[in-house]
Amino acid sequence: MEYAFLGGPGSGATLRLDYRAFAYAGKFVVGAPGKAVLRTPDGSPAVPEWKPDEPLPPAVEASAFDDDVVAAVSFSPDRTDPDCCRLRYVTVHVARRGEGLGPRLVDRTVSRLAADGYDRVKIAVNNPFAYAALYKCGFAYTGERTGIAELVLERPTAEVDGENGTAEVDGENGTAEVDGENGTAEVDGENGTAAVDGDSEAAARDESGGDRYRAGLRAFRDGDRDLDPVEREFVAARLEEGEERGGRDTREE
């Protein structure tokens, strides 16, 4: 798959994604946000073996969709901070989730946003699974909240980490998606679990980073939204692991 930056905010770039394969497909038709994708280099279908569960309406042709795309992200400047860009939506083809494509796309897009002059990238998450996945992509809890039970995460664009491991959410038990006006991460499925690709020995031991990570977990645990049993178990286990490590940065996992 190749990375393609389709255009920055205001460029008018649009995508026609098959709504049966991509969450939030309709959001990518809007031209105002910037967009980037992972796609096949020759324009061939990204998932030729995929069979949708439902047919298209008679008035819609399958050829109208950009079927060479396997993952997409949209983004736009923060409304109050011109040096910051917010990820609005991230979506991965339903048949290719759990392969680390979302984090790979985010990493490449952050690099491009750095070249465009942004200092930071933000996103808001509303569940601990997506929180853990994005944390391992280099995002950290800011202490801010937005919306209902959403934690704001931030990543400096200068810290694009390709060696310390990228995170994915297991495709069988739940996959990370991004939604919302401010960019909120959600997990599809019931038992989302965070996994890490990469060399854990290369990760820096940063006690303050570990403290920030656990602060976000506690915010989910003690927040207004009632966690489901799987979420509660996940948060409790991660907090216990952090205490046993005595503050070591959780990116080492």
TrEMBL record:
GO terms for molecular function: acyltransferase activity, transferring groups other than amino-acyl groups. Keywords: Transferase. Residues 17-159 form the N-acetyltransferase domain. PROSITE patterns: GNAT. The keyword Transferase applies. Residues 202-211 have a biased composition (Basic and acidic residues). Residues 162-211 are annotated as: Disordered. It comes from the Archaea. InterPro entries: Acyl_CoA_acyltransferase, GNAT_dom. This is GCN5-related N-acetyltransferase.
